[in-house]
Amino acid sequence: MSLTIAPNERGVVRVFALSMGDAEATALRNNAPAGEDTASAQEIALGTRHLDSDFVEVFPLTDLEGLGLSGYLETGNGIDPAVLAPDKAKLNALGGWVLIAYSAAFGGFAQVLSPIPALKLIGTYGEPLPNWRAEPVETVQSARLYSGRARTTQKGGTARGMRMGRYVIAVLVALVAAIWLILT
């Protein structure tokens, strides 16, 4: 069995049942390097070389006592109950260990997974996408484009500014002349 991971995949949760003993499953959870190979136990199990183990969960289903795997996927991952409904009985009937791989585990790389025979894909589920819709913002008249008062120039305003500029220049010239007379 091989699974194709699309480039830049987002929001997909893959659930695998583990057909292995507790010792093997614990080693898979601890994700130790497998022998001399630099690949981790999870990379070997999923048949990939690009895996971020921060987005892979391996745990015994006894950890979900009272909640069940479908409840964990609903409440822990926000997956819509309607999406899980066809597989709910199958998910809750599982025993032993499971591996859950999130899209982020594959780092946005296009990949083909070749899981080991001890991993059986139970289901692929979509995480809820954020609702980016928003109500339109109502603007008041004064915030609309070209709604302000037109600027008007006051006739005295420009002349007043020029008069003030002349006074400042005259004071500066007098000050420079006084300093020059003192220094010479």
What would your notes on this structure say?
This protein is an alpha+beta fold and 184 residues long. It has a domain at 3-126. Helices cover 35% and strands 17% of the residues. It has helices at 22-30, 41-46, 68-77, 81-84, 88-93, 155-183; strands at residues 3-5, 12-18, 56-60, 97-102, 111-113, 119-126. The strands form 2 sheets. A 4-stranded antiparallel sheet has the order 3-4-2-6. Strands 1-5 form a two-stranded antiparallel ribbon.
Could you give the order of strands across the largest sheet?
A: 3-4-2-6
Strands, total number: 6
Report the biggest beta sheet as strand number plus sense, adding barrel if it closes: 4 strands, antiparallel
**Any low-confidence stretches, pLDDT <50, length ≥5?**
none
What distance lies between the first and last C-alpha atoms, to the nearest angstrom?
100 Å
Q: Considering DSSP H and I runs of 4 or more, what fraction of the residues is helical?
A: 25-40%
The number of helices is 6
Order of helices and strands: EEHHEHHHEEEH
What general form does the structure show?
Answer: elongated
Structural class: alpha+beta
Tell me what portion of residues adopts beta-strand conformation.
15-25%
Average pLDDT = 86
Radius of gyration: 35 Å
